[in-house]
Specification:
Helix content: 25-40%
Strand content: 15-25%
CATH topology of the largest domain: Adenylosuccinate Synthetase, Chain A, domain 3
Radius of gyration: 21 Å
CATH superfamily of the largest domain: Adenylosuccinate Synthetase, subunit A, domain 3
Number of strands: 20
Strand order of the largest sheet: 9-7-5-2-10-1-11-15-19-20
Bound molecules: guanosine-5'-diphosphate, 6-O-phosphoryl inosine monophosphate, magnesium ion
Structural class: alpha/beta
CATH architecture of the largest domain: Alpha-Beta Complex
């Protein structure tokens, strides 16, 4: 299995970090290919909980090398803070095992200020971004005026570029009624960070292809999710990158024939943070129950922003779409433990629009917002799943629920998570 892709099947926060940590145990390289520190990936190892934003989740396995790919946008100051935090907890982050693509783009203070100003200007129509500067950074990339990580090896040129980017953004900021940034003062932290990150910068596409040639096993850790994809999500309530399988190839620079496993990660219910449609959203007590009280680290409060996540029933229309766009070979279903104690469970198996049942999302947002979920109702179960480790232990109703998910999106569920920790998972076979 040379390359495995881990792809979010919903609106992000499906548990990709947890899955990358699990699959990373058998990998040589774990690589991120899209997004930036808008991501928040939680990993529980024994008593310790790690919240990663930029560093790939494979970093907790000593023998694994980690790559930040060219498809990413990187805030160097936040990256260093994350690296320092991990180092303080005993994680090795030497340049021998942690590589940053020279072609990745840099998030500057200007991007962060522009993200905020753009959200403010949108008012009630705001996307609800993470305010990390992601959209403006990708805008500069596609506008061919971005700053690439490779420039951090040349402190003087990098300083000039960041300075210029801030001056340029100040024109837009003052035009939008926002306060301009003090270019020299704001750029200082970025320049400091750049000097420390220089040794980590490499041509990571060449690195990955060389490692593939040597027989290495590579896990590509997606960020965000299919419904946040710039092309395949519910535009404009999306992020500015390509979290789907195609994004991994472009965002790391290797060929499609290396990929032989594409793991779609989905929660067994739906969550979304930020604005945009969510047809199966539950406002009342059921939604609250799915969200949790906030006492546990796995409750539905954003890892990056702390915002409470919107919760609802599982939507198989979304999953089917995600499976199709990325070609999932299997599903990893997380948080099944959370559904214990529900008297009944619902799955949206189709959407109704103008009297027609749709199996896949309509292509435009207006139609999508008019659609209504068509539910199947199934019995729940009471047993606590968190200590179960074998398929045979699962209650019949849980098995029926998992089986139905696989049928509805024509993709086998091969693993279920029954708790956030490494060993809290159950491998499934066809005899489910
Ligand atoms: P990511 O962004 O896709 O990596 O997901 P996040 O880490 O943002 O959110 C997923 C949350 O669910 C984290 O708090 C995980 O610890 C937690 N989690 C993952 N799998 C399971 C599971 O099977 N059961 C429970 N209870 N929590 C889980
Ligand atoms: P992980 O990797 C959940 C959402 C934001 C907003 C939209 C655009 O942890 O799954 P952006 O800051 O990217 O311009 O915001 O995308 N969003 C995420 N939601 N998980 C994420 O990452 C997300 N990254 C971005 O909430 O709706
Ligand atoms: Mg997350």
């Amino acid at each position: 299995m040379p390359v495995t892709l881990i792809i979010g099947a919903q609106w992000g926060d499906e548990g990709k970090g947890r899955v990358a940590d699990v699959l990373g145990a058998d990998a040589d390289v774990v690589a991120r290919y899209a997004g930036g520190d808008n991501a928040g990936h939680t990993i529980a190892v024994g008593d310790e909980v790690f919240k990663l934003h930029l560093v790939p989740s494979g970093i907790l396995h000593e023998d694994v090398s980690c790559v930040l790919g060219n498809g990413m946008v990187i805030n160097p100051v936040n990256l260093l803070a994350e690296m320092d935090g991990l180092r303080a907890r005993g994680v090795d982050l030497s340049p021998e095992r942690f590589l940053i693509s020279s072609r990745a783009h840099i998030i500057t203070p200007a991007h962060i200020a522009l993200d905020r100003a753009s959200e403010q200007a949108l008012g009630e129509q705001a996307i609800g971004t993470t305010l990390r500067g992601i959209g403006p950074a990708y805008l500069d990339k596609t506008g061919r005026r971005g700053i690439r990580a490779g420039l951090m090896r040349d402190a003087e040129s990098f300083a000039d570029a960041v300075h210029d980017a801030i001056e340029r953004a100040n024109v837009a900021l003052t035009g939008a009624g926002a306060s301009p940034l003090d270019a020299s003062a704001t750029a200082l932290k970025w320049i400091d960070a750049a000097m420390r990150l220089g040794p980590y910068i490499q041509d990571t596409s060449q690195y990955i292809n060389r490692r593939l040639g040597e027989g290495a096993r590579i896990v590509c850790e997606g960020a965000q999710g299919t419904m946040l994809d710039l092309d395949h999500g519910d535009y404009p309530f999306v992020t500015s990158s390509s979290p789907v399988a195609g994004g991994a190839l472009a965002g790391l620079g290797f060929g499609p024939l290396h990929v032989d496993r594409i793991v779609g990660v989905t929660k067994c219910f739906s969550t979304r943070v930020g604005s945009g449609p969510m047809l199966t959203e539950l406002d009342g007590a059921l939604g609250q129950r799915l969200r949790g009280s906030g006492e546990n680290f796995w409750d539905e409060f954003g890892t990056t922003t702390g915002r409470s996540r919107r919760c609802g029933w599982l939507d198989a229309v979304i999953l089917r779409h995600a499976a199709q766009v990325s070609g999932f070979t299997e599903l990893f279903l997380t948080k099944l433990d959370i559904l214990s104690g529900f008297e009944f469970l619902k799955i949206a198996s189709a959407w109704e629009l103008d009297g027609i049942h749709l199996k896949l999302p309509p292509e435009n947002l207006e139609d999508l917002q008019r659609a209504k979920p068509v539910y199947e109702t199934m019995p729940g179960w009471d047993a606590d799943l968190s200590r179960m480790r074998y398929q045979k232990d699962l209650p019949p109703a849980a098995r029926q629920y998992i089986r139905r998910i696989g049928e509805l999106c024509d993709t086998p569920v091969r693993t279920v998570g029954v708790g956030p920790e490494r060993e809290q998972q159950i491998a499934l076979n066809d005899a489910l």
